[in-house]
Structures are given as structure tokens and as C-alpha cells.
Amino acid sequence: MPAQILSGKEVADRILADVAKEVDSLARSGCRPFLAVVRVGDDPASVAYVRGKRKDAARVGILSEEHTFPEETGQEDVCALIDRLNREEGVHGILVQLPLPPHIDEEAIIERIAPEKDVDGFHPVNVGRMVLGQETFLPCTPHGILMMLRHAGVEVRGRHVVVVGRSNIVGKPLANLLLQKREGGNATVTVCHTATPDIGSFTRQADIVVVAAGRPGVLTADMVREGAVVIDVGINRVEDPSSPRGYRLIGDVAFEEVARKASLITPVPGGVGLVTRAMLLWNTVRAARLAQERRGG
Ligand SMILES: Nc1nc(=O)c2c([nH]1)NC[C@@H]1CN(c3ccc(C(=O)N[C@@H](CCC(=O)O)C(=O)O)cc3)C=[N+]21
Q1: Does 265 reside within a domain?
Q2: For position 61, which CATH number holds?
Q3: Euclidean distance between CA atoms 238 and 216, whole angstroms
Q4: Are 145 and 245 in a shared domain?
Q5: Which of 118, 120, 207, 252 is catalytic?
Q6: Model pLDDT for residues 152-167, shown as the tens digit of each residue
Q7: Hey, which of 10, 276, 282 would you mutate to test ligand 1's pocket, going by the most ligand atoms within 8 Å of its Cβ?
Q8: Are the C-beta atoms of 258 and 224 separated by less than 8 Å?
Q9: CATH of the domain at 247
Q10: Whole-model pTM over 0.90
């Protein structure tokens, strides 16, 4: 039986509707959530993602501003802007679009962001809090994946989830969230990566496979069990002269063949990416609410 499609748009729309309600209630108490986005250089994919994030923000009534630097900008200039945004009371969330150019120290930039404005959940303080199971800003993609599974009624408790990829923004935090002893967690988790000799031998044992490897065709039909749930986090641009933009987006999963075997699968585009954007705005509203509470509002 061909797989059902788990639509990111459906999940994102629901989350954005909740976010919009929360924005309204904050606005009535005199606080308008505000997101500052920082971008260095003009990587076309980054330009496109930031445009998407700001479009969603506008749709739910969140204000946003974009700060762009030329590719050759130095570390100090980016730090100076972050320092200023940290001090600005009206700025609730700060997102520095990654990747940064190679001459900029990404870790130092992330650590510069005030943890209470780190709506990406990338600051070491927030990562530590997440691993310990404390309240914090959860990283948007992993959190979005949990929301998609919940929306689809997929219980992860006691199931075997195999994550392919160990990045700091997806694989590592997702594996952590899945194994936490609470609602949405309690899974048995295996993480495969570039040094895993036979990834298929692990993914074939999975009830749920999440692929965040950053390379097309990493997961093929022979690597999944009949009826498995497949979450595709990859977004790869491939040349396509027949498309108006000259390229199209594909995931890391060989979609057609895997969809014939899986019970449920996320598409690309229209999948995890859209929910990632919604979770960013969710975090931004939360940052605004927490800031208001700190000021005694
Ligand atoms: N500081 C930081 N935070 C991030 O959250 C972050 C980042 N840097 N750098 C890059 C990755 C990637 N990412 C995506 C977000 C939305 C879509 C998305 O909206 N995708 C749409 C289509 C996008 C398009 O048409 O180009 C879709 O899949 O349907 C994709 C990818 C966030 N990231």
C-alpha cells in the first residue's frame, strides 16, 4: 500500500493559528513580538529561507527586521550588531542565519546571543537545558518533527527511531528529545552517520526513520521496513531546466520508491521545512511573553 503523505503545511497552519492567537493576546497587553534576523553574504538558499520566515511572521502579526551584511564582513561587526540587539528591549528574538562565511567563527557568534533571545535554541546554555529536560527554547527542526509525529498520531514511546545524521541543528538535538522521559519522548533511539558502515542494517529495524543527512538518495526502498514512518529533513537543490526557477527541491529520501513501502512519509518541499518556520515563530512569541513577565507585565 502506498504511503499516506504527512503534510507540513497542515501542521504548520495549525501551529501558526495558535501563534497568531497568542500574538493577539500579547498585543492587547501592549507587547508586539519582534524578531531580528541577521544574514551575512548572499547564499541564495539563505535568502529564500529568510524570506519564508519573514512572510510567516507577517502573517501571524509578528514584526521582523532583517540585517544583512556583505560576505566579507568581519567578526567584530556581526558581534557589535548582536550586542546591540541583545540590549534592545523591543527585540524579543534574534536569529543568525547559518551557515556563516568560513572566516566567521560560528560558535562565537551563537554564544554572543543572549540565551533569552536565542529563538533557534542553539546557544550552549539552551542546548544544555534541553539535554537536561529543562524548560528552554527547543531547536525548531527537531521540535517541528515531534509536532508532525504528534499531529499524525504516531506514538514514539517504546518505538525504535533511527536518525540518520548527527548535526548540531537536527540529528543531535532530535535524538536527545526522542529519548527524554516525557510526552513525545521515551523512544529507543539509534543515530547513524557518515562513519556508520551499513546504514541500511539499522534503518531496516526502525519503526520511524528520520533522514537529515544533507544528501539526496541517502534512504532507498531496500533500507526501510514495510509500513515504516519516514521523515525527510533534507532540502537539496537540483538543476531542472523545465522548472521556472531552473532548479527544484528534493529531500534526502528516494521519495517515489520509499513511498511505496512506508505507511507515512513527509514530502519535500511542503514538509518539515514549513513546520520548522512555524516553530521559530512559536519560540519568538514565547520569548516575548517571558520578556514581558520579567518586566512585571
Ligand atoms: N539560524 C538558523 N536557523 C535555522 O532554522 C536554519 C538555518 N539557520 N539555516 C538553514 C536551515 C534550513 N532551514 C529551513 C527552513 C525552512 C525551510 C522551508 O521553508 N522549506 C520549504 C520551501 C523552501 C523553498 O522554497 O526554498 C519547504 O520545504 O516546503 C527550509 C529550510 C532553517 N535553517
Answers
A1: yes
A2: 3.40.50.10860
A3: 9
A4: yes
A5: 120
A6: 999 999 999 999 999 9
A7: 276
A8: yes
A9: 3.40.50.720
A10: yes
The mean pLDDT of 183-208, rounded to a whole number, is 98
Q: What is the largest CA-CA distance in the chain?
A: 57
Domain count, the chain: 2
ipTM: 0.95
C-alpha cell at 183: 510526552
Q: Does the annotation count 97 as an active-site position?
A: yes
Q: From CA 53, how far away is CA 276, in angstroms rounded? A: 9
User: Are residue 100 and residue 186 in the same domain, yes or no?
Assistant: no
Residue 268 lies in domain:
140-273
Angle at 176 between CA 174 and CA 179, to 5 degrees: 110
State pLDDT tens for residues 84-108.
Answer: 999 999 999 999 999 999 999 999 9
**Residue from 7, 145, 235, 236 to probe ligand 1 pocket by mutation (most atoms less than 8 Å from CB):** 235
Are the C-beta atoms of residues 53 and 64 closer than 8 Å to each other? yes
Q: How far is the CA of 216 from the centre of ligand 1 (A)?
A: 16
Which residue, by CA, sits nearest to atom 15 of ligand 1?
Answer: 273
- 24 among known catalytic residues: no
Q: Are both 102 and 144 inside the same structural domain?
A: no
Q: Coil, strand or helix: which one is 54?
A: helix
Residues 46 and 94 in one domain: yes
Is residue 286 domain-resident? Answer: no
Task: Please list every protein residue whose CB sits less than 6 Å from any atom of ligand 1.
Answer: 48-49, 52, 95-98, 120, 140, 235, 249, 268-271, 273-274, 276-277
The answer as to whether 127 is a domain residue is no
d(CA 139, CA 119) in angstroms, rounded, equals 8
Single-letter code of the amino acid located at 233? V
